[in-house]
Amino acid sequence: MRKKKYRDAHHVSPAINVLFNIIAGVFAFICVYPFLFVIVISLTSEESLTKNGYSIFPEKWSFAAYEYIFKAGDQLLHSYGVTILITVLGTLVSLLVISLYAYAISRKNFSYRGFFSFIAFFTMLFNGGLVPTYLVVTQMLHLKDTLWALILPLVMNAFYILILRTFYSTTVPDAIIESAKIDGAGELRAFFTIVVPISLPGIATIGLFATLGYWNDWFNALLYIDNPSLVPLQSMLMRIENSMQFLLTNAQLSSSGQSLELLRTLPQEATRMALVVLATVPIACAYPFFQRYFVQGLTIGAVKE
Amino acid sequence: MKPIKNFIHHLNLNKVFLLMVLPGALWFLFFSYIPMFGAVIAFKDYRIGRDGFLASLMQSEWVGFKNFEYLFSTNDAYIITRNTILYNVVFIILGLVCAVAMAIILSEIVNKRLAKVYQTGMFLPHFLSWVIVGYFTFSFLSVDKGVLNQFLVWIGQDPVSWYSESKYWPYILVFLNLWKGIGYSSVVYLAAIVGIDKTYYEAAMIDGANKWQQIRHITIPSISTLMTILTLLAVGRIFYADFGLFYQIPRDSGPLYSVTNVIDTYVYRGLKVTGDISMSTAAGLYQSFVGFILVMTSNWIVRKFNKENALF
């Protein structure tokens, strides 16, 4: 009798366990379902869509949307290219700048560490707002309609600096750096040959945050990009959606020549969903392998020095 | 002469470190501190001149608090403030309760491998942009092809024109916010729960505590610091709305503005649609200023109770 009671306290009762499985399972399913649904829509033939609307059991399957994209999808390939370029370049620049900055302010023999820590930290508390930033980027730095407008605004983030600073000061012992310096290495060399290899997990975490940020960014394109050849993937999807909305809300235009022209240039229903799938698949395939870094980052960030 | 010499000597000692922070410091200068200074536009009648931003800023005329007076005399100021705060309050409370509950549920599921599968599934929305989620939402809410309207017709109801009926949107937005965020925050809480020292539970079991008592008296107190910190971060940002949620998901639909317009979307539209630069700067500064006071106050309050839990 005692033994049974003891075992009961280890686990919830079987009935509760079933209930918990149902709650977690149903919620997980709700989280994944829309993505599966969009995949199915992208594989539905255009006639079935017009006739039955969106359905998880389409009347007729079709690869036409994907064939169309790979045959006529200049804009898509171009946008994919822009997204990949800003993601790779942006992540590298971001990592270099953040890791150097965080390292300097983690070192106790840097006389101005307090000042530079404050400069970073204060941006989390107060900011000038969207409009002055927009004016600086467009009228002072003249970055409108350049790739740099998609890269530079996302380079720094005070939160990442704090995470990495905490990571350095908890994982890299001062003694190692001191001994490297006794062996004649300068601060910079000590950083690249000793500190970076030790702190790779922390740097990788920030790298993943940055990669996701660049891949998913549409806001900077919304603000700064008008030139169609510089539009990244997410932003292209947004523009298609806006044009559709424009057609729907201006129904009286529908029969006019202008809107017929617009309608002809827009991809069809299944094709639009296929674009969504193609923009999401790389992330959906990669994140299960990297998810623990995303958790780690936040938990490190929540630890104070 | 001596202080200057001392200063130069100091700079020389720190020159490698100064080089390391230089790119980042320049970034902060251009993307944070000049814009902060530029926020004085809110007190001016900004006119774009030919000589760039700073020159235009200097040349524009001072108007005192006129932009703010104008902003607060409209009904918009009330609506955007109300929407921003109310939505965030609901997001914070429901988000905290659901995330902690889900984390406890995940930690108590006997089959750990299944729990891991659920966890991975509910983490997916966190990695998707609001543009993508906007398409997902559209597949359910589309007037002629959407799943919800198919269902309504099937049970004999009239289809709803979702993107022009404002009364449903508070629920839709709250649902989507939870849908996107719970997976992530529950996994973070779960990481904290897994890290709790097992001997506490052993001791409690020997004292005869059942599972529910263990959860109440060990699990929840152990993660309360994390709960406070994450909530505090959210409370400090209660004046900031998630632009993507309020702009992408309702598809910028005019009839919905009364329930979807928040400070961030208002500022954006002021800048890009109506082009009223000084006014939207004023709205942005109002947001930053109140936001700053809120972070400082909430941190101060937490400090009074428990120094450990404060942010700074």
Key terms:
heterodimer; A: 305 residues; mainly alpha; MetI-like fold; 16 helices; disordered N terminus; B: 312 residues; two-stranded antiparallel sheet; flat
Please render the helix and strand layout as text.
The complex is a heterodimer of chains A (305) and B (312).
Chain A: H1 2-10, H2 14-42, H3 46-52, H4 64-72, H5 74-106, H6 113-125, H7 130-140, H8 148-151, H9 158-171, H10 174-182, H11 187-198, H12 200-215, H13 219-224, H14 233-249, H15 257-265, H16 269-301
Helix pairs in contact in A: 2-16, 4-5, 4-16, 5-9, 5-12, 6-9, 9-16, 10-11, 12-16, 14-16
Chain B: H1 2-13, H2 15-38, E1 44-45, H3 52-59, E2 61-62, H4 66-73, H5 75-108, H6 112-123, H7 130-141, H8 147-154, H9 169-194, H10 198-206, H11 211-222, H12 224-236, H13 243-247, H14 257-260, H15 263-274, H16 277-305
Antiparallel strand pairs in B: 1-2
Helix pairs in contact in B: 4-16, 5-9, 5-12, 6-9, 12-16, 15-16
Task: Report on the architecture of this protein.
The complex is a heterodimer of chains A (305) and B (312). By secondary structure, chain A is mostly helical. Chain A has one domain: Orthogonal Bundle (MetI-like fold), CATH 1.10.3720. Chain A has helices at 2-10, 14-42, 46-52, 64-72, 74-106, 113-125, 130-140, 148-151, 158-171, 174-182, 187-198, 200-215, 219-224, 233-249, 257-265, 269-301. In chain A, helix 4 crosses helix 5 (74-106). Mean pLDDT of chain A is 86; it is low at 1-6. Chain B has 312 residues and is mainly α. Chain B has one domain: MetI-like fold (Orthogonal Bundle). In chain B, 73% of the residues lie in helices and 1% in strands. Chain B has a two-stranded antiparallel ribbon with strand order 1-2. In chain B, helix 5 (75-108) runs antiparallel to helix 12 (224-236) and helix 15 (263-274) runs antiparallel to helix 16 (277-305). The longest helix of chain B has 34 residues, at 75-108. The radius of gyration of chain B is 25 Å and the shape is flat. The two termini of chain B are 38 Å apart. Chains A and B meet through helix 1, helix 2, helix 5, helix 6 and helix 7 of A and helix 2, helix 3, helix 5, helix 6 and helix 7 of B.
